[in-house]
Design goal:
The longest helix is centred in the C-terminal third of the chain and has 37 residues. Helix content is about 75%, strand content about 0%. It is rod-shaped, with a radius of gyration of 22 Å. α1 crosses α3 and α2 packs across α3. With about 90 residues, it is mainly alpha-helical.
Length: about 90
């Protein structure tokens, strides 16, 4: 996925300006983005503060680690089950 040239903090700042009354077209022109991009940002980051965004990123990282751990344990479990069934222990 292509990385944005804007940080989440910059995106939240632009959305706050829009909430304070600036037009989306004006902000989009200033940032050199399309209005569709601006509204996608609004859909994804609307209502978030910078601190909320940091917490969300931290949770996403933790979630991906937990998913990897589960996948590894699941593979180990299936391998052990397979070994036990071949040896007629189970």
């Amino acid at each position: 996925m292509k990385r944005s040239k804007f940080t989440e903090a910059q995106i939240v700042k632009a959305l706050k300006e829009h909430e304070n009354g600036r037009k989306a077209e004006e902000i989009s022109r200033e940032l050199a983005i399309s209005t569709a991009t601006f509204y996608k940002w609004k859909e994804r980051y609307g209502g978030l503060e910078a601190s909320d965004l940091k917490k969300m990123k931290d949770l996403e990282v933790e979630n991906s680690k937990l998913k990897r751990m589960f996948a590894e344990l699941s593979l180990d479990h299936h391998a052990l089950k397979e070994i036990l069934s071949k040896k007629n222990w189970g």
